[in-house]
Request: fold
Amino acid sequence: MTTKRFSRSLKIIVCAFLLLTLIPQALFSAEKTINIYFNGELLYFDNAQPVLKDGRTLVPFRKLFETLGFAVKWVDTGSLRQAIGTKDGLEIELTINDNNAKVNGKSILLDVPAQMIQDSTMVPLRFVSENSGFQVTFTDSSSASEIQIRPAGAADEAPAPAPNTDDVEPYVVKGRVVDTQGRPIQGAEVFADNQLLYNSNLNAVTDANGYYRIDLPLLATTWRMGGSHSVNSYKIDLTPEVDAAFAGNTGAIRNFTLQAETVYGELYLYIALDDFVKGYMENNVELTLTPIDSPMGGSGQVITKYGYNFPGGFGMNDVPLGKYKVTARYAPPGEKPVQMLVSVRNKGKYADSVEFEFSPLVPGIYQAEIEVKMP
Reply:
């Protein structure tokens, strides 16, 4: 009798425990409605509905692409599944479960990839829209979230404050990227660096007006902002207006400036070993750099200098990025200069002059190497 009573009591306890675990799930299982508007008109989705995934809105790919004016293509080779949209010289390619999307062949990192949800192909709404020349605004209430998609620069019926004003939103970081003349930079990559979790950055790309917005997850952590932009194959770090961490729950405004003309390359100078053994010294070598191409907006002036020691080595560390023709003279003080032969170190033959351009050493640092010898 005691054993049966114990067994019955155990069943009651187990059932009560299961109810306690299921009740919270039932209470919170109802997802908030997500309404999406294109040019003020509500979009209707036939089967799969928009969902929120890790702070990002995912929508059925075909409906979104066709609404934005794309011709759509679905690729399924078994091992590779891709959603591709093309229009007017623009191609956006998203691969299922791959955080790297492509815009006209350029790889861009996503924080939430395209994915299959209940047999429907779902893609990130903001990424596709903003890379198609549209702007996305988001409003939230306790019962529903509303997302507006409009052409970049179009005015809403109730205009939202510009992202670079003081309308700070909790769990949102936003701002603008401009050049030194105040002109907007489109396509700049901005990231929010999670100071708590390693390799958990969130990324965004600026729209045609230079604006970006990143929705932050509901985490008790701080964030620090950074970014870069490619100019003629050179990747330039963005200069922050405010370089300080902020708490996610407060949100922040973080604006940047692209100062391409202030980015320099490091030119390393070497003297041939045989000449060094004979006593010829690098600090007596005078280099003349004649610009061939100045893609970073430099002055294009000819540079004539002796090499010098700098933290990275010997040569020059203040050369505007670009392509140059270089000549060299051995010119110790008080002696008649002697024209030297030059080469791009380990890459070419010696000649009276050679051409070189800077290449990346590590992100944000560019270098070139020149070797000289007596004729």
